[in-house]
Write a structure and sequence with these properties.
heterotrimer; A: 175 residues; 4 strands; C: 463 residues; mainly alpha; 17 helices
Chain lengths: 175, 1032, 463
């Protein structure tokens, strides 16, 4: 590839608890961690890595609201204004019979909207191969990637820090 | 039908002058004559199926546009899309009805009663309503035939004339002939062939009545009866509301006596003494089960009871322990002068005694109009029997059957049939190749009555005309013309009739107008009636003692053996229209059976003979043996059937009849026999019924017999209660609120919609509805309702929009127990016409996902067929179960060719009402209150720039309802009949409120408690009986 | 992170390591199908084909080939619909509600349960489709689409239309929920494939996994998405059967018009759903040797839920009768008397035996923890729930207000064929799922392996 090679130091951890401590210590030592890859969600890892809370719930709420308003207004317009019909002697439009559809549509939009957003922001798409620092990251290893380009500390220092903090192995990887 | 829409022939000129019309009218039908059956092979069917499926799945596609060729010169009065009405006359066997024929684009599509006739008075019967489809019967003869070879009229005529010339004993056999002109035509024939003898007989014989009157008054005749004047009616097995003598007329008269309200709280009282539960028995206030073997004695006993009061001598014959007989005598005597006793017996002696009774009661001149004798039912059983004998013995060498079918409908039919082979010349003028025609060498088909000119004299001095409503479809020829051709004096029958009327009646016509306009007026009105004084009484001179002795020898108080009652079918009548699916699928008013006729067995006898029937009409075949003749018949356990008697109806068992009626039922005519001079329909001895193990399922449209004591469905009381309180029998359901009980209609979550223009509603009087069923046929014809056939009815899928629920009373008062499902041995019967109730809060509308059924701003519950996707949710949610689903494609589908020719044969299709869509497979349908008629009425009013008149729109069922039980109209119009009848009051919601308040204490809505607020109101049934007899 | 309560039995037995989890679960995806699988698949396909023929015949000739009539407009079609929807409840319920309640025991069963949900809902959807007289129009006329007829919209008052929205929403959201769970596990299989050098499989599963990388950031987003989806699905799953029950509850038919239907239907749905989950899991467990992941403990917990919901349903039945009697409406009273003693008494009593009596056996721990007993009763419950719907629909319709219209209903071979058709769909799909998808949520199980299985080891080491 034409782009300049990026070089990474990849720390492999077996145990999530060890990892959690490690992340904290390593960051205290001023080493910038690119990202940690785990086979399963490790609770607290995002705090340790200093990630801010996801704003997806807000997205979900907004999508939901859109659904509610859309469904309700559409029903009222269709039944009450566009072409009112006498059905079972009932009023042309009244809210109670419109609730079920409104509710379902709210859920639908909110769920799809949120999942869609999630896929976009996390850049997940079927035709993309992820950058894999260590293939075992989906099996049983927790993989910590450290971008050497982004760190002042030397490769050896970082390797040392990693091993001190319980990395079972430390490899180099370049892309 | 509004008079403004009526059009009539301007006479022959129009026909003649406008040859273009005749030619093109011919063209219109030229290619339907040729085919014997619709001629679609299975492969065609699949092709069509394939097409329809493909077309349907590409929902966007338009249906292919067919070119319509307009008339080159449009005939006068024939506007495409505008209906023309022609006054005409229905005649079949002894039945007579003056009718109006509705035609669209030259095709008769509907028959309705002609109100101007004082005989049928605008009423119709199921047969009359259905007769329009018989016009398009595929089994009709396409033209003259010699044996089985098609030929032309010239050949037929020459051969017949030749054979007649050499004949020395010529006989003309016919049913009663009402037509003066026809009689003249036949006389011409007689004049040419002096050896000719004309013999009249009727499938249903009244010869006994005729002879009894001869014995009683010197001259043989059958009088007119006036039930409308009768306060007390005692009927000894005479089913005058169903089949006896002139049922249309009698239903109208009787219905008038059953209409009561707050102001007028008197009604007639009807006693019925009979063996099998007849329509009249079902409407009777007091009904007693009497065996045929006792019937004569009952008449005698009734005579004795009356004689005792009149201070006359009792008769030698008598019988006791006949329930209600004494009471009947009391009432008869009490209402002397306006009482009436009729008997269904065809036994001269019994009828003589009945005449004696009526004489004592002074009925003659009041309820019996001897001065107005009827001309129908003039058949002479003795002559007919004699003819069969001489035919069998080979004495006859030429016989012409004029529109009659004795081989089928005469007791000695087989014998006659066998004899025909030996007769040199046999001619039949029947319009189908029936049993007699097929055994005759020459088939010289007459027109169907809707293609014919003719005149009639049903009663003395009451005349009517029939005129063609369509140019002859086939190469048939007016039978009268045939007679005159064979007599060597060919005359066009139309001119013949016209000339006769000119000579006979125009001369007497008081109103001074020229003949043409007088004649036009006759055609326009269809009837020509001159008043005769009917009050004239007549002196009874009969030898009643002799009659009594004869009776006591024929009848006995106790008879050990079983007896058989043979009666005329309500649907098929005498069987001449058996090939008409409208009648085959018309549920019998009592048994609710279609497409078959069972043998009726009482509950007690069924137990004794080990017959069992489950809730799905699964029964067994029994072997009925009478005088050595055995037939297999399915058994129906019939409440109200007198123990010790069986009942079986006529009209079935046709063998040469066409696909529709093929192999349905048994020919019961063979059990009729000549008993002292007249044909008796009762077999008093030698009757056995044995059970076979062959299972059989009858097709019943109603399998549950009682109404489970549900007051919200049927509300009835008795007159004595009604007199005290006009709302007697009403059920006022209450809904419990948290604090109080309130009227269901007062509770609602919404205020409803106002109907500011019209608000269509209907009232059905359970008291005057006799359950006859002509409304059902009328509805079928008007609305192109599919007929689905026996198997589909067994699957409970009949398509009738209007049905008549028939409920028997039960001995149990429970609303949930099994006992409540069992009818009493001699039940009270109530008929309830049930159709779409057009609920203002319609449950069906709410649940339709695609809004295919909605409410109009005139209160109609509308069904949009082409929007329907067929979820059937609406039908499930309909409390009245009046919605009908198209389970299959009933049109253009060979599977339904037999049951539904009107949608599966090119000939039958001509009967379809172009104003109503033929529904496709998979959609829901139901009563529309004849919305096409409502729209037509509105358009007429709009065109004439005036508000609609009440009575301008008449639904098909209302028009067909002879007894006037059905009233339809605009409930917003303060002057409309329905507003007046129901006493609709302006409530706080104002006149146009959707929920009308009725002031009529009898008016109720079915299932008031569920608050769907129908636009159909029922008037409570009031029986004229004592309170203590009121059943729970 | 969460500590597992020591009182709890371990959820994963046999001292499995995280790697074992990936291995055990991915194994059957990678290996060739067993003969048993082939046989089962063949049978399902055969049933599917026969069912498809019956559907085709019905579509060609009309609804009339079924046993329905003028009075009974719905019978097997809607019975099966409600039955399948009910079954389709357990999956999402297990995943969503149990996730909200942090019930970790769900983790090894929710994947299969959700799959079952989705296939069951597909089966359910086929009935409202086929029961329409004009399917070819209905399938899009039932949606509020702009159309050539001008201002022609659907009727939003109709419970049937609410159904359209409820079921389709439920289906699509469950599908998304299920697929979200699958994404990380697909990645596992992908990477195993890479290791094994199976290029094609690697590509396929990468596409299926949307190029999942398992980054901490993605995981944290992923978790909140899962949580919110669960939050949305919980009311959704309850709403679905509530709305289905409104098809009946909002009508005027005696026996349908009942306000307790929503809770009663939901309970019934969970009841039948769990029964079906058990039926299927016990088979899967056996066939794929997942005894260590689906333990007796799981089975017992589910059996307890079956006792609870079964009892709720039983109480609902009794309440209906009491109210019918207490309400004093003749038609209503008759409807219920007719259920017990009318022509369809046998349906009613099979319902009672299967739904009310049989689950009570689970009060005995020996039966509750006995796989054979559980399997048998789970099937009995499913039969019972079918009869419940049949009783509600057919016995209410066949004798309603006007005795003149009372009829009986008899199924034809096409009613039965249509039912078989859905079984064909269900098992064909389920077998394909079991073969090509990880039947257990690896990521979730892995997250509890340490907490539980290690403890297990220590306890076993103790004596």
């Amino acid at each position: 590839m034409t782009a300049a090679k990026e070089n990474f130091l990849v720390g492999i951890f077996d145990d999530e608890d060890v990892l959690l401590q490690a992340v904290g210590n390593i960051r205290d030592k001023g080493v910038k961690i690119k990202e940690v890859y785990s086979p399963f969600p490790v609770h607290g890892l995002d705090e340790e890595l200093g990630y801010t809370r996801s704003r997806l719930p807000i997205a979900a709420f907004l999508f939901g609201m859109t659904g509610t308003i859309l469904a309700l207004s559409t029903q009222i317009w269709m039944m009450g204004f566009d072409w009112p019909m006498i059905i079972g002697g009932k009023n042309h439009y009244s809210i109670p019979p419109f609730i079920p559809v409104t509710f379902e549509f709210t859920v639908l939009l909110s769920a799809f909207g949120m999942v869609g957003t999630f896929l976009v922001v996390s850049d997940l798409k079927p035709y993309k191969w992820p950058r894999q620092y260590d293939i075992r990251s989906t099996d049983d290893k927790h993989v910590m990637a450290i971008d050497l380009g982004a760190n002042k500390a030397s490769k050896e220092e970082i390797r040392k820090i990693l091993t001190e903090n319980g990395a079972t192995e430390v490899n180099e990887k370049s892309f | 039908m509004s008079t403004t829409k009526k059009k009539y022939w301007k006479g022959l000129e129009q026909l003649k002058n406008d040859t273009a019309f005749v030619k093109h009218a011919d063209k219109e039908f030229v290619n339907i004559g040729v085919e014997e059956d619709p001629g679609h092979s299975r492969r065609d069917f699949l092709k069509m199926m394939g097409f329809s499926v493909a077309a349907a799945s590409l929902a966007a596609c338009e249906t292919p546009i067919r070119k319509a060729i307009p008339f080159v010169t449009k005939p006068l009065d024939a506007d495409p899309g505008i209906a023309n009405y022609y006054a005409s006359t229905y005649i079949d066997g002894g039945d007579y009805c003056s009718v109006l024929v509705k035609t669209r684009d030259g095709r008769p599509v509907k028959i309705e009663g002609n109100a101007l006739s004082s005989v049928s008075g605008g009423g119709t019967s199921a047969q009359v309503e259905a007769s329009v489809l018989s016009l398009y019967d595929n089994y009709r003869l396409r033209g003259p035939k010699i044996v089985d070879k098609k030929t032309d009229w010239e050949t037929v005529d020459s051969e017949i004339i030749a054979k007649l010339g050499s004949a020395s004993h010529i006989r003309i056999i016919s049913n009663t002939i009402l037509s003066p002109s026809t009689k003249v035509a036949i006389d011409k024939f007689k004049a040419k062939y002096p050896s000719t003898q004309h013999i009249q007989y009727d499938p249903i014989s009244y010869y006994g009545v005729w002879k009894a009157n001869e014995a009683s008054f010197g001259t043989g005749f059958i009088p007119s009866y006036d039930f409308s004047k009768a306060k007390t009616i005692v009927s000894l097995g005479a089913d005058f509301l169903g089949t006896w003598l002139s049922p249309i007329e009698f239903t109208k008269q009787f219905g008038a006596t059953r209409k009561i309200d707050e102001e007028h709280r008197e009604m007639s009282r009807l006693y019925q003494f009979e063996a099998n539960l007849s329509l009249t028995g079902a409407n009777a206030d007091y009904r007693t089960m009497v065996k045929p073997s006792q019937s004569g004695l009952v008449a005698a006993q009734l005579y004795n009871l009356i004689a005792a009061k009149a201070g006359k001598a009792a008769l030698a014959a008598s019988i006791d322990k006949i329930t209600y007989l004494d009471k009947a005598a009391e009432d008869l005597w009490a209402s002397k002068g306006s009482s009436l006793v009729v008997s269904g017996s065809n036994d001269k002696n019994v009828q003589t005694i009945v005449n004696g009774i009526n004489d004592m009661l002074g009925s003659y001149g009041s309820t019996i109009l001897s001065a107005l004798p009827v001309n129908f039912r003039q058949g002479n059983d003795e002559l007919m029997a004699a003819f069969v004998e001489e035919a069998a013995s080979g004495k006859v060498d030429a016989v012409i059957f004029y529109n009659c079918n004795p081989v089928y409908d005469h007791p000695m039919g087989e014998k006659l049939g066998a004899a025909l082979k030996g007769i040199a010349l046999t001619v039949s003028t029947g319009y189908t190749e029936d049993e007699t025609a097929s055994l005759s060498t020459y088939k010289a088909p007459d027109h169907h009555y809707l293609e014919s000119w003719n005149d009639f004299e049903p009663k003395k001095n009451l005349f009517s005309l029939s005129q063609p409503a369509i140019t002859p479809i086939f190469k048939s020829r007016q039978a009268q013309e045939s007679f005159m051709v064979w007599a060597g004096a060919p005359t066009e029958y139309f001119t013949f009739v016209k000339e006769n009327w000119k000579n006979w009646f125009f001369a007497k016509a008081t109103s001074a107008m020229d003949f043409q306009s007088w004649w036009d007026n006759c055609l326009y009105e269809g009837v020509l009636e001159t008043k005769t004084d009917t009050s004239a009484s007549i002196s009874f001179t009969g030898d009643i003692a002799a009659a009594a002795t004869a009776v006591s020898s024929t009848y006995k108080a106790t008879n050990s053996g079983y007896e058989l009652v043979v009666f005329e079918s309500y649907g098929l009548g005498n069987g001449s229209q058996a090939n008409n699916p409208l009648l085959q699928e018309l549920p019998d008013p009592i048994t609710k059976i279609v497409w078959d006729h069972p043998i009726l067995v009482s509950q007690a006898d069924a137990k004794a003979l080990k017959f069992e029937m489950d809730g799905e009409s699964n029964t067994q075949i029994g072997t009925l043996t009478v005088g050595g003749k055995s037939i297999p018949v399915p058994v129906l356990i019939q409440p109200g059937q007198a123990p010790g008697t069986f009942g079986i109806s006529l009209g079935y068992g046709r063998t040469k009849v066409g696909k529709v009626a093929e192999n349905i039922g048994q020919r019961a005519y063979q059990y009729l026999a000549l008993v002292n001079g007249s044909i008796s329909s009762d077999v008093l001895s030698g009757v056995t019924l044995t059970k076979t193990d062959t299972p059989f399922q009858l097709a019943q449209t109603q399998t549950h017999q009682t109404y489970m004591g549900r007051e919200s469905v049927i509300q009835e009381s008795v007159l004595s209660e009604f007199k005290k309180n006009p709302s007697a029998g009403r059920d006022f359901p209450k809904v419990t609120k948290w604090d109080e009980k309130v009227d269901p209609s007062s509770l609602s979550l919404w205020k409803g919609h106002e109907y500011n223009n019209h608000h269509w509603g209907m009232s059905i009087d359970l008291n005057s509805c006799t359950g006859c069923g002509s409304c059902i046929v009328a509805c079928n014809v008007e609305n192109n309702v599919s007929l689905v056939g026996k198997d589909e009815v067994i699957r409970r899928r009949e398509m009738h929009w209007l049905r008549i629920d028939r409920y028997y009373s039960s001995d149990s008062t429970s609303t949930t127990s099994e006992e409540a499902e069992i009818a009493s041995a001699n039940p009270e019967v109530v008929f309830q016409p049930m159709l779409c109730q057009h609920c203002n809060n319609a449950p069906c509308e709410t649940v339709c996902p695609v809004a295919a059924t909605t409410h109009s701003t005139e209160g109609l519950n509308q069904m949009t067929y082409n929007r329907c996707i067929g979820t059937r949710y609406c039908a499930n949610n309909c409390p009245y179960k009046v919605r009908r689903f198209n389970w299959f494609k009933y049109h253009d589908n060979q599977q339904f060719y037999q049951s539904n020719p009107a949608m599966n044969t090119d000939l039958g299709r001509m009967v379809l009402n172009p104003e109503v869509t033929v529904r496709s497979r998979g959609v829901m349908e139901k009563c529309s209150f004849c919305v096409q008629r409502i729209q037509a009425g509105k358009l007429t009013a709009k065109r004439e720039r005036r508000p609609m008149k009440d009575g301008e729109v008449v639904t098909a069922c209302q028009a067909a309802c002879t007894s006037g039980a059905i009233v339809f109209g605009d409930m917003n119009n303060p002057d409309s009949a329905i507003t007046k009848l129901l006493k609709i009051t302006k409530d706080e919601k104002g006149a146009s409120a959707f929920d009308k308040k009725t002031g009529n204490p009898r008016a109720y809505r079915v299932l008031e408690d569920i608050g769907v607020k129908p636009n159909i109101f029922y008037l409570t049934k009031i029986r004229n009986k004592e309170a203590e007899k009121e059943h729970a | 992170m969460q500590a597992s309560a020591p009182v709890r039995e371990s959820l994963v037995t046999g001292g499995k390591t995280v790697h074992d989890v990936s291995h055990d679960i991915s194994r059957q995806v990678e290996g060739n199908p067993t003969r048993l699988w082939w046989m089962a698949f063949g049978v399902s396909l055969a049933v599917l084909t026969y069912g498809a023929y019956c559907c085709g015949y019905m579509l060609w000739n009309g609804i009339g080939v079924w046993g329905l009539n003028k009075t009974v407009g719905w019978a097997w079609d809607i019975t099966n619909f409600v039955w399948w929807v009910g079954i389709g409840h357990a999956g999402t319920l297990i995943s969503a509600i149990l996730l909200l309640f942090r019930q970790r025991w769900r983790m090894s069963i929710n994947r299969a349960a959700e799959a079952m949900t989705i296939f069951a809902v597909i089966c359910a959807l086929s009935f409202p489709a086929f029961h329409m007289g004009r399917l070819w129009l209905g399938f899009y006329w039932a949606l509020p689409l702009p159309n050539t007829f001008g201002s022609l919209w659907v009727n939003f008052n109709s419970p049937l239309l609410w159904d359209v929205f409820a079921i389709s929403t439920y289906f699509s959201v469950s599908l998304v929920f299920w697929y979200m769970g699958l994404i990380p596990d697909f990645a596992v299989i992908r990477d195993r494939a890479v290791k094994a050098g199976a290029k094609t499989r690697a590509n396929i599963y990468n596409a299926l996994s949307f190029g999942w990388d398992g980054a901490a950031k993605t995981w944290s987003r992923y978790e909140s998405v899962a949580l919110i989806l669960a939050g949305l699905s919980t009311p959704l799953v309850l709403s679905v059967h509530t709305i289905v029950s409104m098809d009946f509850a909002t009508s005027v038919v005696p026996g349908w018009h009942t306000t307790i239907f929503p809770p009663y239907f939901v309970a019934g749905a969970i009841f039948s759903g769990f029964a079906m989950v058990l039926t299927l899991l016990l088979i899967t467990r056996k066939v794929f040797h997942l005894e260590d992941y689906i333990t007796i403990y799981h089975v017992e917990l589910m059996n307890i839920i079956i006792i609870v919901t079964g009892s709720i349903v039983g109480i609902a039945y009794i309440t209906e009768f009491f109210i019918a009697w207490y309400g004093g409406v003749p038609a209503e009273q008759y409807a219920f008397a007719n259920r017990m003693s009318g022509p369809y008494w046998w349906a009613y009593w099979s319902m009672m035996t299967c739904n009310v009596i049989s689950p009570q056996l689970f009060w005995f721990k020996r039966l509750r923890t006995n796989l054979v007993a559980t399997f048998v009763i789970s099937i009995i419950v499913n039969i019972g729930m079918w009869f419940e719907r049949f009783v509600i629909i057919v016995t209410s319709l066949h004798r309603d207000y006007l005795p003149s219209s009372w009829t009986m209903f008899h199924p034809t071979m096409y009613d039965i064929g249509e039912y078989l058709f859905t079984f064909g769909i269900f098992f064909t799909f389920f077998l394909l799922f079991a073969k090509f998808f990880p039947v257990i949520n690896m990521a979730e199980v892995k997250s509890i392996v340490k907490a539980t299985s290690e403890k297990k080891k220590s306890t076993t080491g103790a004596h």
